[in-house]
Amino acid sequence: MVGSGRALHGDDSERSQREQAAEVFAAPAALSSARRRWHTGRWGEALGDEDLADTTRKDEADSQRDDGATQQHATRDARLRLLTDQVPAVVWSTDAELRFTSSAGAALRSLGLLPDQVVGRSLWDYFGTRDPNEPQVAAHVRALSGESVSFNVEWLGRAFEAYVEPLRDEHGEIVGTLGIAVDATERKRAKSERAALQARSRHQQKLEAIGTLASGVAHEINNPIQSIMNYAQLIRRRTDNEALHDYAAEILTEAQRVASIVRNLLSFARQEGEPYADVPVESLVESTLALLGVMLHKEGVQLELALPKDLPLVRCHPQQIQQVLMNLLGNARDALNERYPVAHEDKRVIISARRIEGADGACVRLTIEDHGPGIAPERMDKLFDPFVSAGGGGSGAGFGLAVSHGIVAEHGGTLSAQSELGSHTRFHVELPAARASLV
């Protein structure tokens, strides 16, 4: 047989043919040269030029289809990654050992993370715990057993609503977990603000009801009180009995105190339509203590006042700021009664004030300090949220500080707190100084 320039015999011929055939199928690009070498040989007999051309076209078409499918997969993966990276959530997966295998989502940025940055780390290591009862860990453990679990978690100052379910392979076997957590921080903050607004509205309605009641009570009480005062004065003027004179003087003093309490109650309750005014801080404190002073004294709470006479006036709604002070003093009283059920030398409230320079100009800082049990550090960040009480005993619905914070903010001021557990708590009310008093 004539080959490609030399004669082939026996086994050498057969082996050479097999090798060259393998070359043809292993390298489709060499088909044309192989076709030229073999067009007169056995392959030329078994596989003609047209068949070889068809094979070449088929291989090229298969290659193009493979390239197209690869491109489609790449495009789909890119779109999926783009979608998950922009979703306002965190999406992740773990293996059966609870090691992260992927992480994506726009909410990663709020945690200071990049996509897939935690891949390879264990869930235990990331959350810094070995406690299987931690909500975020327990949910994944349950998911590995086949459950779908919803839970809420706070992490790095953010609030998340999370969902975890089993991750299964093509055979239905559980090979890990798949989770998504939606960042609900802003929604919860908005909910708290709405709750505070509603609480304040209810507070206002209560005050209006008190005002109506106090107005009626004042009319019923003022006339008898005035009569009592008049008779006491008559007795003082007409008697020569020293003891009776002293009794009449005491009656007159107590009647005047009752009348003063009624006036203060009316003033406190009559908030609707009251104008803003330039008011001395000292008068705000005095009007508040006129309502609470007797109660504090009866419970053994000592009062210390440090109010300089040269403080600038503050422009405010007097009754609203009085409401704030009553709330803060009430909290201080509760804290002291919790720590000291009976009289004690440290059972006291210190009310002080001083001028400070704020970002927007001069302010007056009014501080109310108590030596009660203090507030736990983990509660300080939420102290002004609705439903959070300053006291440890759980008394009250926890609206007072939220409402007070809103009142002070509306005045252009700030309400803040400092506390050391087991030592003291200080609330600072900062109000802008009245411009007229700074001239």
Outline the structure in words.
Helix content is 50%, strand content 20%. The protein has 439 residues and is of the alpha+beta class. It has four domains: 10-76, no CATH class; 87-183, Beta-Lactamase (2-Layer Sandwich), CATH 3.30.450.20; 187-273, Helix Hairpins (Orthogonal Bundle), CATH 1.10.287; 276-439, Heat Shock Protein 90 (2-Layer Sandwich), CATH 3.30.565.10. The strands form three sheets. The chain has a five-stranded antiparallel beta sheet with strand order 2-1-5-4-3, with helices on both faces. The chain has a five-stranded mixed beta sheet with strand order 7-9-10-12-11.
Walk me through the topology.
Elements lengths: L9 H17 L4 H8 L3 H5 L2 H38 L2 E7 L4 E5 L18 H5 L7 H10 L4 E7 L2 E11 L5 E10 L1 H54 L3 H28 L7 E3 L1 H18 L3 E5 L7 E3 L1 H22 L8 E11 L2 E10 L6 H4 L19 H11 L3 E7 L3 E9 L7
Parallel strand pairs: 7-9
Antiparallel strand pairs: 1-2, 1-5, 3-4, 4-5, 6-8, 9-10, 10-12, 11-12
Helix pairs in contact: 7-8, 8-9, 9-10, 10-12
Q: How many strands, which pairing sense, and closed or not: the largest β-sheet?
A: 5 strands, antiparallel
**CATH topology type of the largest domain:** Heat Shock Protein 90
Q: What is the spatial order of strands in the main beta sheet? A: 2-1-5-4-3
The rough form would be described as elongated
| SS element count, helices | 12
Order of helices and strands: HHHHEEHHEEEHHEHEEHEEHHEE
CATH superfamily of the largest domain: Histidine kinase-like ATPase, C-terminal domain
Q: How many DSSP E strands?
A: 12
